[in-house]
C-alpha cells in the first residue's frame, strides 16, 4: 500500500524492511549500512485509494523528492530530491483522514481537497463542532479535482436529482468525496436518506456497478481515473452532468468549487460532460521542520521533477509552479513560503 521513491533495489528492500520493523536499525541490517541509516529521513504522503488519482500522483512526488544514501546521482544544474530523504506515498481514505493523521502525527504530509483543508483549519463545514486543526499548513496547490458522478449504462440517471431511490456509493468515511457528494445531493434536494447509500472506494464501487449491484457512484479526483477508465472499457459507463441552477448555487455557496468539463473520450465512449471541481493541495503540519519543507518544495519545482510529472500521469502535466499558490485558504508552511519568496511568487 506504499509508493516508494526511485531508489536502488538494495535500498528499496532496506526501506521496506525498516518500515515493517519500524526501526532504522533494520535498514542497516538490510544492506544500507549503519552510517547511511543514521542519515535517513522518512516523509510520508497520505494519498487516497489505490484506484484514484491521489495515489499515483503521490508516488510520482515521492520519487521526485526522495534521495536516500546510495541513490541516483543528481543531474547537473538540477535537484534530484532532498539528500537522505525517503518519501513514501501511503494509501488512505482521503482528505479528511489525511488531515486527521497529520494533526495526530502519524503522517508528515498528505493530499487534501482545498475545501476540506479550509474547513479543518477554521473548524467549519465538515469540521464544525470539532477542534480547529490550526497547525495545518500548505506546501502547494496541485491540480483541479473533478467531481465524477458515474452511472451504470442505461440506468436512466441524467441528473443528480435522478439518484432518488437509487443504489449510490458516496465513498468511504474520511474522504473528501463523501463531503462533496453530500453537498451535491443537498443542492438537488436530496440527502443520504433519499438514496440507498453505500460507502465504497471507486474500485470496489466499480465492481458492484459492473455486477449490477450499484446504480451510480461519486468520485472526486483528477481525470482520467484508473478505476473509471477500466470500468468504461470493460462494461461501459455514463458520466452524469452537474449543471444548472443547482450547480450555480454550489458555486455561490462554496467558494472552492469551479466549473469544469471532462473532455469527450476521456473515458471510452463517454461524451463531453459538464461538472464542477475543487483543487487538490499538498498539506503538512507547522510542526514539521522548516528546512525540510523548504528542501521538499524546492525539489518539487525543478526540471527533473517536471519530467517525472509530465511523463507519469495525465494530471501531472497540470501541476505547475505558476499555479502553486492558487486557491490556498490556509497558511503556507514557513519552509514553503521561503521557497516561493525566493522564486518570486510571493512579494
UniProtKB/TrEMBL annotation:
Organism taxonomic ancestry: Bacteria, Pseudomonadati, Pseudomonadota, Alphaproteobacteria, Rhodospirillales
PANTHER family reported in the protein's UniProt record: SLL1037 PROTEIN
Name of the molecule in the record: TRAP transporter solute receptor, TAXI family
Pfam families for the chain: NMT1_3
Signal peptide start and end residues: 1-37
SUPFAM superfamilies xrefs: Periplasmic binding protein-like II (SSF53850)
Organism: Tistlia consotensis USBA 355
Keywords: Signal
InterPro entries assigned: TRAP_TAXI
Amino acid at each position: 500500500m506504499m509508493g516508494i521513491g526511485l531508489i536502488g533495489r538494495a535500498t528499496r528492500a532496506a526501506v521496506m524492511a525498516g518500515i515493517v520493523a519500524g526501526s532504522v536499525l533494520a535498514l542497516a541490517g538490510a544492506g544500507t549500512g549503519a552510517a547511511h541509516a543514521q542519515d535517513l529521513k522518512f516523509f510520508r504522503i497520505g494519498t487516497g485509494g489505490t484506484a484514484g488519482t491521489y495515489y499515483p500522483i503521490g508516488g510520482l512526488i515521492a520519487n521526485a523528492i526522495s534521495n536516500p544514501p546510495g541513490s541516483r546521482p543528481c543531474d547537473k544544474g538540477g535537484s534530484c530530491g532532498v539528500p537522505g530523504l525517503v518519501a513514501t506515498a501511503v494509501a488512505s481514505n482521503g482528505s479528511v483522514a489525511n488531515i486527521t493523521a497529520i494533526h495526530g502525527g502519524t503522517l508528515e504530509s498528505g493530499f487534501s481537497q482545498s475545501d476540506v483543508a479550509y474547513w479543518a483549519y477554521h473548524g467549519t463545514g465538515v469540521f464544525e463542532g470539532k477542534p480547529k486543526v490550526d497547525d495545518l499548513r500548505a506546501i502547494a496547490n496541485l491540480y483541479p479535482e473533478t467531481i465524477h458522478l458515474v452511472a451504470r449504462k442505461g440506468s436512466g440517471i441524467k441528473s443528480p436529482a435522478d439518484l432518488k431511490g437509487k443504489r449510490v456509493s458516496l465513498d468511504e468515511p474520511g474522504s473528501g468525496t463523501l463531503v462533496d457528494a453530500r453537498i451535491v445531493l443537498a443542492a438537488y434536494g436530496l440527502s443520504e436518506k433519499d438514496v440507498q447509500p453505500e460507502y465504497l472506494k471507486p474500485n470496489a464501487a466499480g465492481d458492484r456497478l459492473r455486477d449490477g449491484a450499484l446504480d451510480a457512484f461519486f468520485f472526486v479526483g483528477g481525470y482520467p481515473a484508473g478505476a473509471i477508465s477500466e470500468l468504461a472499457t470493460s462494461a461501459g459507463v455514463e458520466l452524469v452532468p452537474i449543471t444548472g441552477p443547482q450547480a450555480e448555487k454550489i458555486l455561490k455557496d462554496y467558494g472552492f468549487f469551479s466549473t469544469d468539463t471532462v473532455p469527450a473520450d476521456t473515458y471510452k465512449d463517454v461524451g463531453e460532460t459538464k461538472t464542477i471541481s475543487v483543487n487538490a493541495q499538498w498539506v503538512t503540519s507547522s510542526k514539521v521542520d522548516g528546512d525540510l519543507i523548504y528542501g521538499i518544495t524546492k525539489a518539487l519545482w525543478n526540471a527533473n521533477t517536471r519530467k517525472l510529472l509530465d511523463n507519469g500521469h495525465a494530471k501531472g502535466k497540470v501541476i505547475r509552479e505558476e499555479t502553486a499558490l492558487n486557491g490556498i485558504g490556509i497558511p503556507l508552511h514557513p519552509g514553503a513560503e521561503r521557497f516561493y519568496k525566493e522564486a518570486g511568487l510571493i512579494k
